[in-house]
Sequence to fold (980 residues):
Amino acid sequence: MSKNLTKRSEDYSKWYNELVLKADLAENSSVRGCMVIKPYGYAIWEKIQKELDAKFKETGHYNAYFPLFVPKSLFEAEEKNAEGFAKECAVVTHYRLKNDEKNPGKLKVDENSKLDEELIVRPTSEAIIWNTYKKWIQSYRDLPILLNQWANVVRWEMRTRLFLRTSEFLWQEGHTAHETKNEALHEAKLINKLYEDFVTNFMAIPVITGTKSDSEKFAGAEETYCIEALMQDGKALQAGTSHFLGQNFAKAFDVKYADKNGNLEYVWATSWGVSTRLMGALIMTHGDDSGLVLPPNLAPLQIVVVPIFKTELELNNIKDYLKPYINLIKEKGYTIKIDDRLNFKPGYKFNEHEIKGVPIRLAVGNRDIENNSIEVFRRDLLLKENINIENLLDNIEFLIRDIQEKLLNKAKAFQLNNTKEVENYNDFKKLIEKGGFVLAHWDGSEETELKIKNETKATIRCIPESNSKTGTCIISGKKSLKKVYFAKSY
Amino acid sequence: MSKNLTKRSEDYSKWYNELVLKADLAENSSVRGCMVIKPYGYAIWEKIQKELDAKFKETGHYNAYFPLFVPKSLFEAEEKNAEGFAKECAVVTHYRLKNDEKNPGKLKVDENSKLDEELIVRPTSEAIIWNTYKKWIQSYRDLPILLNQWANVVRWEMRTRLFLRTSEFLWQEGHTAHETKNEALHEAKLINKLYEDFVTNFMAIPVITGTKSDSEKFAGAEETYCIEALMQDGKALQAGTSHFLGQNFAKAFDVKYADKNGNLEYVWATSWGVSTRLMGALIMTHGDDSGLVLPPNLAPLQIVVVPIFKTELELNNIKDYLKPYINLIKEKGYTIKIDDRLNFKPGYKFNEHEIKGVPIRLAVGNRDIENNSIEVFRRDLLLKENINIENLLDNIEFLIRDIQEKLLNKAKAFQLNNTKEVENYNDFKKLIEKGGFVLAHWDGSEETELKIKNETKATIRCIPESNSKTGTCIISGKKSLKKVYFAKSY
Fold:
């Protein structure tokens, strides 16, 4: 295990915070709650972006860009949405600074530059976008509109944690407009499925899916579909949401279209997003006591080579020895690099690449050249073996697939082992205390939900679509249509 | 020429504004000075981003992300930089809204949420980044730092125009830190060269390059390298800048490194950027009275096919006829689409693709099938010809290269024809009135520069590196080391 990294079993939260810093992913900035995403962390985010962006485009979506600011009068138009975000809004009130006569060299806000109307830094873009769609939509011919934007948003959070909850974060937000309710519902579900597929198969993070309860759904939505992942400390993490917005925004912004018969109808809407929070899910799903563990799909560097040498001549010999194999590996599209830094010792390099989660580490010294061998280390299982260098490419190809697969399987097994069904509130309380998902019957009332939350800190993470065995609520004894997933959450 | 588009010769400025809207590139939003970049415009911006990003990475740069907000105390640390941007800063002063009791359903700023220190929405990120670099840099081993970020920035402009000058715009900003002055100078020049190469060879926009005069350089820079393009109305447009920042930010933020001997030295810096303004350069360099003209490198859709049909059977016949050729074209990596919309007539489609600048348009009707032919239209020259469909792929490959090349050559010829040298102020005034670059001797004083600006509205666009014939200033008659480029500008 890595030097100086707290063990997960000692203090999971501390382990997370240390890992984010030590793996060089992100750090806090001098702006309250805002993070600096460091190059290594950003390179992983770029891999997430690239893959998701391709999936959005494949399913007919286009990117666009809408303003950072939302005038207050637009912001408040959809009341539930406004209410949901009002308490965490950064507000721009002035547009100029001037010299502070009392403090030479310092600046102060120029009171003469007060804005007639305050601008809200977008916490989400439904308001500004629907105000724009109003101009774009007249007829059924203008529909559907299937747009996405990659952007920064600001929610003034009181307690922040790198990636998991920051005042500014990066995300994508899709905003679509449709002729019919069914079409919009289909879109919201399609995207939730796309998120599920991406997070499971690309990030190797298994999720449960379903809808949110009324109290947990997006402010302004009729229905929120979601994917929820389970972290190693037994807490759930909401990894993505896709909202069926009904006609709420169309009504708030008066967006109607003429159908084929010339009748005016309100437009149906969806919105959906995932954010840099996925980085938190990634770290907490796969990380171990030695640091970050990256699925090969997300690793900015998939294979690192640490040469063991004393002289420059030895280093050059090692490079000559490796060259043909490295070329083959590169040709196959893998990223590989020789860490030939002179001012760091092999042990230091091993530790650094371990904590940064590089999936495969190769080590080569003089004796390997003599023996035609190479040491191969896989980060996920912390296993190393010596192989004949002739087999290197085959071995790499196997490991890239196998690490991706095993990480998913391991996380799936963890989720399965930590998902329990209960029939009564006593068992519920015992299990929820241990962590994990607990499936239990719920009568569908906000009252029951709140009582459980107050007494156990657990919330309904999602209402699954499939499970449909009726029963009785563990609290009220009333009729329940299906069991729902509870957990404590991030 | 396109219906309803003002001619360039009638009103160039009106032509530009109309084109941006009619080609579906962008539009004004309900937020003063902020634009909505529409999907078609954004798709072009994505092509710019992708190519530039690859070039930055090839030259050893990494992406990262820094906060949107800059606390006022950091913002004012580098005095010249602060002074340069103070008058156009959006300022966040509060972090919460509350219900407005007097207006049910409305919100107002919660006065209890006033920030202790105001936050500036970044107009540029030197301050927040150098405050971060202070933590990252201790020793020469930590250098160089070669980072870039893709981000939105806000400069509260009084007069705005889509893409050319907007209160919020998208850009990339590179920020590098170096051990030595020479290394930083080399970096600043390298990036200016990279910009020149990209804008010339990828965007087909020729530029002149050099440094800015003191009055035109970036606030906080020691030297600003720039690329300047010439628009069809004879005005110059600053297309990119790369700044050698000396040790100004290192001193303002106290960033020192220990060199190999253990001596503490201030770090040397550069910063550099291009923005969505490049979209304006693109439109104004290549556009004509029929609309946008896109170099194939930047066209989201390179080839569009307009089928001429009356019945669905005819449409299907046309599709069958085209299929093998379209597959070949796609295999070569070109983007091609059949515009098979049923509710639009061919004439409407021709006009739409013309105004959107699609480089190549193909048209196919029944008679073409009989004759084994296809109509090929090239947007740049507005020329069409009928060819044997067997030659389609060869023809496309030729046109893609030829259009890209001819657009550059045409723009180069325009720039050459509109760049004149003068020896006295009378000739200067006559030529500058006509537009274009005017090369003239200048004594290097701010006084002379200001006099010329006041009397002619022309500014020094750049001081070329190479030209080094001495002479006498056209205003003062004092000694001048070289002729410099003057022009009126955007």
Chain B has 14 helices and 27 strands. The mean pLDDT of chain B is 96.
